[in-house]
Fold these 2 entries.
Entry 1:
Amino acid sequence: MSADGMLDAGLAALVLAVAGWTIAARTAFAAVVGFVTYGLLLALVWVRLAAVDVALTEAAIGSGVTGGVLIAAAARLRPTEAPAAAERPGPSLRFAAAGLSVLVSVALAALVVFPADPAPGLGPAAAAHLPELAIGNPVTAVLLAYRAIDTLLEKVVLLLALLGVWSLAPDRLWGGTPGQLQDARRDGPLALLARLLPPVGIVVGVYILWVGAVAPGGAFQGGAILAAMWILVMVAGLHDAPETGQRRVRLLLVAGPAVFLAVGLAGFVVADGFLAYPAPLAKPLIIAIEVVLTLSIAVILGLLVAGPPERERRR
Amino acid sequence: MSATTLYGLCAASLVGLGLYGAIVHPQPLRKILAFNLLGGGIFLLFGVIARRGATPGMGGDPVPQAMVITGIVVAFAATSLAIALLLRLFATTGEASLRPGAPTPPGNDQAGG
């Protein structure tokens, strides 16, 4: 077996082992740690599948930011674990669930082993128009040109999720400040990290955004890195989360989707229709949308991790 | 067996594992975790399909890759909303259980006090 083959086999076995641990772990906290590891291993798998854009997103959002939300929840919900143990289903239901799961897995495995031939794909169609857009990264072209409507709607979904999270707070806390993410110890190693890392992280985030036009990277990945730096500063207690009612915060939240929508509507006048870009301006427009989107994504992700308001608004 | 097929089988197993966890774990938090694990397996299946559609000069079909990127972000949004709901349930009832007869949050006239 070649070195590459051994790497692939080892990686696949490791992913399955960590996934099994995540499901079987005794405590929720251990399961969350397993899940974060699982996400990072999946990112490696994405690199092996030549999808570096997805690998960056999985590592930053699927593993990192999601992990932050889950760890905080596992710590808060620790008192509910002991009573839940009594609710474990009996062996017959577990057996039935295992049978169903194996059936689904086998059906999907059959699809993988006996695939359609020739393999369907839109690669050539996506590559055909790259020169017109002056964009070198086909994934960015799909996200912001060919299927821009998906990306626009996804931003709206993010905003709706944030509204949903905020609306879970009692009325009197509307517009207030999210809860403290963690008890702050300002002189600990975390506080040191939160001072050293963000300057580097912000540069990396902006670089990932900028390079996304020609190489793996883009608004999601860059925004997630910026959000991670902000979350680090909040968790270390160096800077409190902002009041969710501030006009500045609200403007940053909607700026990305609003600019995207405005450019999309302008397409009716200056190009062929909704979300169409006039040819010579395609790249500058895409970059402009991405820059504003990155800011909005960073703020939305950070506030989703911070959770619903828990302290009253200062009047 | 090619690497793509190997990761495809890995993805199929992950979907099964996640489904099993989502059914048998009584705690909502563990269900959310298992559901995300299941989602990771489905995204990976997309990756395998994208890799099979590779063309010269392109490592894989960019369309499924872009769909997965959108999917990861939406999955995060749904997860954080689910966690917020769960924490709110815990804050109002002191429990986080889905069993029949578990205490329900007080009515609208009392909530938000």
Note: Chain A touches chain B through 96 residues (CB under 8 Å).
Entry 2:
Amino acid sequence: MDVILQQFFNPAIAAKVLPYLMKGFGTTLLLSLLVIPLGLAGGLLVAVLPTLRRRWLSWIVIAYVDFFRAFPPLVLLLFIYFGAPFLGVNLPAIIAVAIGFLLNTSSYYGEIFRAGIESIPRGQWEAARSTGLSWAQTIRHVVVPQATRNVLPDLISNTLEVVKLTTLASVVAIPELLNAARNAQALTYNATPIVLAALIYLVALWPIVRLISRLEHKAVAVR
Amino acid sequence: MELDRLVFTFFNVEIAREYWPDIVKGFVITVQLGLAVIVTGLALGLVLAMLRSLQRRALNLLIVVYADAFRALPALMVIIILFFAFPYAGMPMSAFTATWLALSLVLGAFAEEIFWAGIISIPKGQYEAARSTGMSRLQTLVHVIVPQAVRITIPPLTNRTIAITKGTALGSVVALSEILGAAHSASSLAGNPTPLTLGAIAYLVLFIPFVIFGRWVETRFAWRR
């Protein structure tokens, strides 16, 4: 028992590595602030394009979404990161992460927004258009605001997944929380930094998990 | 000329010929791991959701804490804990075991929540009617509640299962030679990204059918909002 305590919850080591891990957590947050807006914007675009009702455009969008949902995000990231130099481009890790996440998360956000847009009755479109709003104005002022509200639980749930996905950046040596924890573990020969990092994720993300559960159960209760 | 160079770099036939057996080996490991994760994860989720419907307070608390924790923790974090931290406690495990266990625990947590949402969506009258015909609690659960609940949980469950099964690629971080691991080490050896291209194709071959299946399931069993 004492050994386990020493190896997993060593207070001296925890105190020593905590500032370093918190810095990693700061990077995790910054990374999330970079990739979530990118993914949301890309997803919105992916969901809005098919409403132009051009068949070829819809097919391209479906192909795009299915293609990038079939790829494990880590495969995408490593392919971009290790493939780019062979094209003569030296991609900084952060750019590779941004591109990989954009392709992956825009597909997932796109599917969610699509479901939201499809939930808006046709009458809303027709009414908006008949008041003289253009297609873009209808999308912006009528369809998207209502669609977003309808799929809010799914959007929040996917956003949580994106935050968790930022751990992949550790593989290309971006010093976010998991990367910091592994470095600290290697330096201290002790599991405490890893356990501490897991605790930080738990404390930070548990409230979001609770929120999602509540929203989902509410959705069930309403039906 | 540029295109030639691109093809020579990313689809080098000679290198592809040399390394494709590695990728195939990785493919087999990915499939084994994926199937193992799906079976244990879904079974764990279903059993926990059924236990939760017994409404024992202490048990419910444990299940909720488990489900919340493994929905909050990133899958890669769980793999790292199992693989790098457990040896310190004298419990070393192979990369395959660590990845399998981690992904099963994560899938189990999500599946429990989805099954549970399905179970509570079944009207109380179904339960009471079944009980009043003399069925035991377990029989009611197995013959009446779960079959109906599973049907409405299929779309969210399918998507979640695909997403988590794709996490098998995370095993490469702990040096498991599944598709990504095999492709990555082969491309380092060859000094050429062709094995990574092969790996990417292998993932597409494996997962595109599932993604299309998921899309079909979503329209077929759609939740009525």
Note: Chain B has nine helices and no strands.
